[in-house]
Specification:
InterPro entries: Hemerythrin-like. This is Hemerythrin-like domain-containing protein. The longest helix is centred in the N-terminal third of the chain and has 33 residues. The protein is globular and about 45 Å long. By secondary structure, it is mainly alpha-helical. Helices cover 76% and strands 0% of the residues. Helix 3 runs antiparallel to helix 4. Bound molecules: fe (ii) ion (FE2) (2 copies). The site of one fe (ii) ion has 6 residues, from helix 1, helix 2 and helix 4.
């Protein structure tokens, strides 16, 4: 069944919020590392999916779309910079937990803003058909999006899509030696 783009995004947000909660509650270091690896992957993929599918659609459909899209890309960039540092650290490293908390605070501010402001307005502005066709593209991008943060890569299509495809094989190689937890996506 095709989900509309807003449902796809809300699903991702739920998964990310849930993983963040699990990270906070977990005391076992190995398990915490697996959860952190999964958070990094889920945010990297989600950001790329929005930058490729949602923000260009904001620009097409909102009169102040460019302003909203640029503001959103800027917030993504800040999160990506922190994720990039976290990605090369271990959960047991000095400063990891503090940086993770900072990144999460920025991210929660960003996803709260999307859920309470931009997404409801977007849903009112465009047709159900288009919401569904964007949802299908969003789900498709999830398969080819880079799984690690690349803060210096382009954040607009088509350059971002191409850069993502180039980065993906290396990202997948890095993932092959990492452990992850189940995101629970199939239960949503
Ligand atoms: Fe976003
Ligand atoms: Fe989002």
């Amino acid at each position: 069944m095709t989900k509309d783009i807003v449902s796809e995004i809300i699903d991702d947000h739920k998964i990310i919020r849930n993983l963040a909660q699990r990270y906070e509650n977990e005391n076992n270091t190995d398990e915490r590392q697996k959860i952190a690896n999964t958070v990094i992957r889920e945010i990297a993929v989600h950001s790329a999916c929005e930058e490729i599918n949602l923000y260009p659609a904001f620009e097409r459909h909102f009169t102040n779309g460019k302003e909203i899209a640029d503001h959103s890309r800027e917030e993504h960039l800040q999160v990506k910079k922190d994720l990039y540092k976290l990605d090369s650290m271990k959960v047991t490293d000095n400063g990891y937990h503090e940086l993770f908390g900072k990144m999460l605070k920025e991210l929660v501010h960003h996803i709260d803003e999307e859920e309470s402001d931009f997404l409801p307005k977007f849903k009112e502005t465009i047709s159900q058909n288009e919401l569904e066709s964007l949802g299908a593209s969003f789900a498709k991008t999830r398969v080819t999006a880079p799984t690690h943060p690349h803060p210096s890569a382009p954040d607009k299509p088509p350059a971002e899509s191409l850069a993502g495809m180039t980065a993906l094989p290396l990202d997948k190689t890095r993932d092959a030696v990492r452990d992850f937890v189940d995101t629970g996506r199939d239960k949503l």
